[in-house]
Design brief:
By secondary structure, this protein is α+β, with helices and mostly antiparallel strands. It folds into three domains: about 1-40 and about 550-655, Golgi alpha-mannosidase II (Immunoglobulin-like), CATH 2.60.40; about 45-60 and about 215-470 and about 485-525, Glycosidases (TIM Barrel, Alpha-Beta Barrel); about 75-215, Galactose-binding domain-like (Jelly Rolls, Sandwich), CATH 2.60.120. The protein is built from eleven helices and 35 strands. Strands 4, 5, 6, 7, 8, 9, 10, 11, 12 and 13 form a ten-stranded antiparallel β-sheet that branches. Helix 7 (about 380-400) links the parallel strand 18 (about 370-375) and strand 19. Helix 5 (about 335-350) crosses helix 6 (about 355-360). The radius of gyration is 27 Å and the shape is globular.
């Protein structure tokens, strides 16, 4: 590891000279000469249902396979019985009678008492159970006679009961009914389970067996996991992109994400296999499905909750080109385009419209004020451009103010990128979505990437990026080396805010027992969630984005690698503060003098926030705050500020202009 870091630092010297001795620099800030406007959407978050991000993640449902719709209908469930009776539990498939939710479980009881016949659900890598928290169990049922009792138990790893109640099912007949009961847990357990014991005689049909904690985000029943959403809200993101990247495309077009299947009553949302179920053979996840309890309405609601602009991404008639490369023929593209038009109506339409009425019936009569959407994800080639033009023409004709985000493929350079970038600019695309999953060296070396981009025409959306540190795995990829390289690159994005108007790290969440892809911004288990060093870098940029870029220079040049320094500066018009961000990527301290021009007077005190650590440092469940920002107060005299930048540090200074 030390040898690899040394090689990295040697490579960085090519950007601006030696880095192994302490340097003294004067950075000139021209505070009265704004060069670009920073959009409120500059820093956002990108959500994809990968790494158990939705089911088993932010969607707080604790029961896996609640409606028996997985390929293996009883996956996640174990039958408990004293004596085996043939046919006492059958999965019934209604087929065409209910194509969206065809299966249910039929249980036949023979004067069953508690302990004779039951079910256990294992949850998503277990169930995180918290002492004192209320748990809400609900289900759908029908029975010929009203004579069934369900004994509900939460159990720990030793099968000891840590919370229980009884649910009496009192309705009889041919119709389905809903029942619910709440109870509290007596202990905290990382990997508990749910038991359901049957008491009664005859048959009962069960479906949509569900368990939620009572402490969901905003205490919504059937809602989202509060600690995970709070980490997002704390970032104050300008936008949230959803429902992801590759799951939008699907392995093939039958596996693509279709937003209309994700709205309406929960029991009518059609489950689908998650494409990450089979994507990585070395990390196969056969129990990874999408129930769509977290659907497009919930995504819009989440954006509304945290003050972020919604950014939905839709399929453009192309499946994943790495997998099947399947495309819908142009003569059959209209339904895909109609889905996009209908989504705008769902988000913004009056309650008298077809899809605006659906939104209102789900509990949100007011429009969500959708301003932008993505067409396709990481799609490429002439076939993408052909389909995109059809979308662009139809959407702009009906909704001219909706901004469209367009794919530039999978990589930030090369023949594929050059072709798409050229074609999209000819089309005057609103946004070109660039993705960069690269080594830390790439991020350091590309700090001037956008300095020479056109200042007019299409804007850039840095839609997915993360620094990938070699020879690490899982959460260990999220080292301070990764985060500081991203911070260096982000100073260049901010400096070029007239070119780059949105950016988001990816992926967002990962479950420690169910991840397929790393690195990730936030790691979780069933009870805990922590932000990585990358998370805190993203948060610092988002909370300190300002409104106008102002020049900061070293020797009359932008600060982009000279002596391993990277910097940006901006004005926050709302607070009348100057915000300066400086990355010192060297192994030595640097004493930098900030010389402020165009300033009449500064406050006598400023707020300095610093992140600093060894390059291999990271956060973990045991040490979630090992690498975090530390705030202090800095004394200011006159119009010069002395900023002592520690080795391997990222500093943010805020000072009031008086």
């Amino acid at each position: 590891m030390k040898q690899r870091i040394a090689l990295l630092l040697l490579a960085m010297t090519a950007l601006g000279g030696p880095i192994f001795s302490q340097q003294n620099h004067t950075l000139v800030v021209k505070a009265a000469q704004p060069t670009a406007t920073i959009q409120p959407t500059m820093w956002g978050v990108f959500f994809e249902d990968i790494n158990l991000g939705a089911d088993g993640g932010i969607y707080a449902e604790m029961v896996k396979n609640r409606s028996f719709e997985f390929f293996k209908p009883l996956m996640g469930w174990t039958v408990n019985r004293k004596k085996f009776v043939e046919g006492e539990m059958l999965v019934i498939n209604r087929g065409v009678e209910n194509t969206r939710n065809p299966r249910f479980l039929r249980v036949t009881m023979n004067n069953a008492a508690k302990g004779d016949l039951g079910l256990t659900n294992e949850g998503f890598r277990g169930m995180g159970i918290k002492k004192g928290v209320r748990y809400d169990l609900s289900l759908m049922y029908r029975q010929p006679q009203a004579q069934t009792k369900l004994h509900i138990e939460l159990i720990d790893t030793a099968k000891q009961v840590i919370g229980d109640t009884v649910l009496s099912l009192t309705e009889a007949g041919d119709n389905w009914h809903k029942a619910a009961v709440s109870f509290h847990a007596k202990e905290t357990v990382l990997k508990g389970k749910l038991n359901i014991w049957f008491e009664g005689n005859g048959t009962i049909d069960l479906d949509m067996i569900s368990l939620f904690p009572g402490d969901t985000w905003k205490n919504r029943r059937g809602g989202m996991r509060a600690d995970m959403i709070q980490l997002l809200a704390d970032m104050k993101p300008g936008f949230i992109r959803f429902p992801g990247g590759c799951i939008v495309e699907g392995f093939d077009l039958t596996n693509r994400y279709q937003w209309k299947n994700t709205v309406g009553p929960i029991e009518e949302r059609q489950l689908m296999i998650n494409r990450w179920n089979i994507e990585f053979p070395h990390r196969a996840t056969p129990d990874y499905f999408q129930t769509f309890g977290l659907g497009f309405f919930e995504y819009f609601q989440l954006a509304d909750d945290i003050g972020a602009e919604p950014l939905p991404i839709l399929n453009c008639g192309m499946a994943c080109q790495f997998n099947s490369a399947e495309v819908v023929p142009m003569q059959a593209i209209d339904p895909y385009i109609q889905d996009a038009l209908d989504l705008i109506e769902f988000a913004n339409g009056d309650v008298s419209t077809k899809w605006g009425k659906v939104r209102a019936e789900m509990g949100h009569p007011a429009p969500f004020n959708l301003k932008m959407m993505g067409i396709g994800n990481e799609n490429w080639g002439p076939q993408y451009i052909e389909r995109l033009k059809a979308f662009q023409a139809a959407i702009k004709a009906k909704y001219p103010n909706i901004k469209l985000i367009c794919s530039s493929g999978t990589d930030p350079n090369g023949e594929r990128f050059d072709y798409l970038n050229g074609e999209l600019r000819k089309m005057n695309a609103d946004f070109i979505d660039e993705h960069y999953y690269r080594k830390p060296e790439w991020f350091f070396q590309n700090a001037r990437r956008y300095d020479s981009y056109p200042r007019t025409g299409s804007k850039v959306f840095g839609g997915e990026y993360a620094s990938h540190v070699d020879k690490t795995a899982g959460g260990n990829r999220n080292t301070w080396l990764a985060a500081i390289s991203e911070a260096a690159f982000m100073t260049s994005l901010e400096r070029n805010a007239d070119v780059v108007q949105m950016a988001s790290y990816a992926p967002l969440f990962a479950h420690i027992d169910g991840w397929q892809w790393a690195p990730d911004l936030i790691w979780v288990n069933n009870l805990q969630a922590y932000g990585t060093p990358d998370y805190y870098v993203q948060k610092l940029f988002s909370l300190n984005k300002g409104s106008k870029v102002v020049p900061i220079s070293l020797n009359n040049d932008v600060v982009a690698g000279q002596d391993s320094l990277y910097a940006s500066a901006c004005i926050d018009a709302a607070t009348n503060e100057l915000i300066i961000k400086v990355v010192n990527a060297s192994d030595k301290p640097q004493n930098n003098t900030l010389q402020l021009e165009g300033v009449k007077k500064l406050a006598s005190k400023g707020k300095l926030t610093v992140m600093q650590a060894e390059l291999t440092a990271l956060n973990s469940f045991d040490s979630p705050t090992n690498v975090v920002p530390v705030e202090s107060t800095i004394t200011i005299k006159g119009k010069k500020i002395t900023l002592n930048n520690s080795p391997y540090s990222f500093s943010v200074l805020r000072v009031k202009l008086e």
